[in-house]
Design a protein that fits this description.
- The strands form three sheets. The chain has an eight-stranded parallel beta sheet with strand order 5-4-3-12-11-10-9-8. A two-stranded antiparallel ribbon has the order 1-2.
- Helix 2 packs parallel to helix 4 and helix 6 packs across helix 9.
- The chain is α/β, with parallel strands linked by helices and about 375 residues long.
- Strand 9, helix 10 and strand 10 form a beta-alpha-beta unit.
- The chain starts with a helix and ends with a helix.
- About 40% of the residues are buried.
- The radius of gyration is 23 Å and the shape is globular.
- It has 16 helices and twelve strands.
- Helix content is about 40%, strand content about 15%.
- Belongs to the glycosyl hydrolase 20 family.
- Its EC number is 3.2.1.52.
- One of its GO terms (molecular function) is beta-N-acetylhexosaminidase activity.
- This is Beta-hexosaminidase subunit alpha.
- InterPro entries: Beta_hexosaminidase_sua/sub, GH, Glyco_hydro_20_cat.
Length: about 375
Amino acid sequence: MTCLESFSQLVYQDDFGQVRNHLTIDDFPRFKFRGLLLDTSRHYLPLPAILKTLDAMSYNKFNVFHWHIVDDPSFPYQSSTFPGLSSKGAFHPSTHVYSQTDVSRVISHARLRGIRVLPEFDSPGHTQSWGKGQPGLLTSCYKGSVPSGTFGPVNPAMSSSYQFISRLFKEVASVFPDPYIHLGGDEVDFTCWKSNPEVRGFMQKMGFGTDYTKLESYYMENIINLTKTLNKTSIVWQDVFDNHEKIPEETVLHIWKGSPAQIQQELSDITLAGYRVILSAPWYINHIAYGQDWTTYYNVQPLNFTGSEQQKSLVIGGEVCMWGEYVDATNLSPRLWPRASAAAERLWSDEKTTSSVTDAFPRLTDFRCRLLR
């Protein structure tokens, strides 16, 4: 009834029976990229849970669904080019996979709600599930002079690695119509590369010495160039920039870590270098705090860093991240909502018109009404 009462105060019926309203609404987004990430690798999310989340995203005016579809634990994306990736890498080859029909349904459902679907295939790290269905892709780790039986990141010394990525991404580009693709590039552990004699030999051949950030840079540069041939623009995590890797100027950097001071410095450094930025670090809402943590998310000021107006124009938006270590279909919605609504409001409204947490209550109330109807 609260929702109906609020609506009744905005409209009235004139003497001729015509329904009219008392106000004119002037509303437009502050940032063009207002995203929400779901991780479907650590826990598989059934299709209805994803579709329900898309509905809730539309209520909050999120417009990008960042689908972190695969990772170390599982590879649920069902590839037609490499069917072994999901048949061997998913939690279950038939019940815990997303067919291309499923993907098309998600894309269509999102499009009708004004939401883009941004796929992420994170490499060279976070790829343990890839190796189960693609032998020879991952780096064989060594203990002394013999293989240990374990595997590390994608092997960047093998030409076959790039041939595989090229074929997989060609398929991904045809399945996901969005002009952007997220390539990951974060948290690459160099330990296995350092142990492998073949990789060490490649390092010497390329003149990289013992600087494994140069090897990672070599890999990411090749992968980004592959996506360019497919007419896709790359998004990468901030690690790629932090490791001083060669990045084409059109690439978008995605900030995911750091203290408030470090985040401000990262925003300043990346935009000073001329790159566009997406901010996620303050909105990792898979973290649970005691009490009402939504106020923290609402009080984030994405442009609160030292830089020119030109630099600040390169911050194209932000993204709420819901990583899946402790989240599945049973607790996804109550963990997300209405906490994510606070970030949605911050990304939509200008800080001059919504400067305190009390300004967030109307939109949060409206969202609760729509969710419960």
